[in-house]
Q: What sequence folds into this?
């Protein structure tokens, strides 16, 4: 990702097919990555609910900022569809474009439509329904206990690496039938992170290829010896998915379960440790953990933006003329904080009408949000129960967000606490 500051001048070429010439904003830059709400306010002020933006390499797109407009896009597949082969920019996109893992068409549930999407999503739903939520909570508690034991005697740790990313990673690989430990499992998780949230020097396209190779081997293993896991249930499902279809859908399942859930845990811990509204209540029995989890989905949603939808035909959205084949970036974070739904700048975190799990047919399939909640809630509650005097080891102003326009999570979360006897 570029590290230059966001620009507000006319950036796009005059022939830009989405009409995003005047005032198009690059979705990059350190100031945006740390305080994106300021950019959203500027975009709303200058462009309204649908803003012209520039992706990596100054590729034009539309960012949907409004809650009503995004809800409309998510529930009108006949106008805004998922098959990226419709994109009118493909002739300008190089094969090593950093966002290719997001938009390059794959035989995945993410890009299917209509009956085919319902068939593929149905397989995932049934595979996830085979997970007992009480057993998942127990397994997450066991994983949490082991992770905490590794650093509890030291009195301090960096939670992102020692706990936050590790817990959902171990939980999801268990659910999919992979070994919890081992270099190939860790490599898979690292490559998924690079694919979704590439940093300086990372190659997301190569990383995505390695993810596919590892999961092809997993599917082959489960065809030979199925077990009580997500992969086996997909392999043996009556819909008869091919190996490649299962691989691509597993990528979607694992990617959605691991890093977004880790960022949900991270952002909730940050809120609990820095916001006095929660600090006063949490010490009295952790009763506000659920409220903190929900507030994070409104104000610091783990997935800020998502590519996306592609216009099926010329249409209007938010006063903008959207041409057939235009790319729309789903501004989940911007929509959740839309002043049109919170006119007095107060986000009512007690309700759950946020769009953090998307919406329409392509929303996170049931029961995925419930399983993510089990993992996140167990991770936060177990940590706070075992380390009751947990506190930040730095001033809150020293915490920094990862440089990503897509995911919302901290780079590091250093904490201190009273050492536990080993």
A:
């Amino acid at each position: 990702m570029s590290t230059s500051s966001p620009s507000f001048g006319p950036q796009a070429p005059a022939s830009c097919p989405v009409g995003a010439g005047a005032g198009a904003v690059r979705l990059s830059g350190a100031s945006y990555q740390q305080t994106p709400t300021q950019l959203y306010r500027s975009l709303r002020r200058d462009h309204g609910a649908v803003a012209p933006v520039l992706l990596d390499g100054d590729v034009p797109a539309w960012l949907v900022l409004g809650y009503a407009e995004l809800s409309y896009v998510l529930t009108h597949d006949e106008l805004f569809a998922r098959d990226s082969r419709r994109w009118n920019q493909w002739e300008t996109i190089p094969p090593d474009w950093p966002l290719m893992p997001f938009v390059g068409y794959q035989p995945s549930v993410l890009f299917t439509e209509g009956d085919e999407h319902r068939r593929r999503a149905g397989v995932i739903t049934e595979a996830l329904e085979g997970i007992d939520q009480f057993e998942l909570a127990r397994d997450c508690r066991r994983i949490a206990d082991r992770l905490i034991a590794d650093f509890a005697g030291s009195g301090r740790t960096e939670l992102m690496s020692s706990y936050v990313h590790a817990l959902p990673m171990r939980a999801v690989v268990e659910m999919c039938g992979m070994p919890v430990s081992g270099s190939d499992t860790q490599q898979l998780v690292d490559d998924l992170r690079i694919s979704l949230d590439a940093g300086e020097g990372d190659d997301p396209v190569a990383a995505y290829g390695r993810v596919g190779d590892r999961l092809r081997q997993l599917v082959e293993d489960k065809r030979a010896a199925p077990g009580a896991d997500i992969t086996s249930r997909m392999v043996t499902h009556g819909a008869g998915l091919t190996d490649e279809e299962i691989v691509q859908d597993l990528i979607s399942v694992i990617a959605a379960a691991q890093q977004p859930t880790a960022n949900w845990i991270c952002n909730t811990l940050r809120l609990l440790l820095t916001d006095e509204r929660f600090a006063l209540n949490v010490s009295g029995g952790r009763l506000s953990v659920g409220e903190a989890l929900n507030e994070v989905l409104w104000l610091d949603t783990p997935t800020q933006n998502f590519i996306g939808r592609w216009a099926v035909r010329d249409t209007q959205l938010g006063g903008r003329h959207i041409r057939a084949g235009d790319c729309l970036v789903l501004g989940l974070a911007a929509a959740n904080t839309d002043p049109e739904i919170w006119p007095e700048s107060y986000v009512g975190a007690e309700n759950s009408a946020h769009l953090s799990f998307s919406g329409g047919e392509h929303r996170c399939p049931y029961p995925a949000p419930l399983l993510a909640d089990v993992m996140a809630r167990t991770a936060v509650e177990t940590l706070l129960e075992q380390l009751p005097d947990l506190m930040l080891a730095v001033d809150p102003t020293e915490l920094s967000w990862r440089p990503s326009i897509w995911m919302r999570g901290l780079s590091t979360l250093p904490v201190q606490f009273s050492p536990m006897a080993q």
In short: The mean pLDDT is 87. The chain has one domain: 25-416. The longest helix spans residues 243-274.
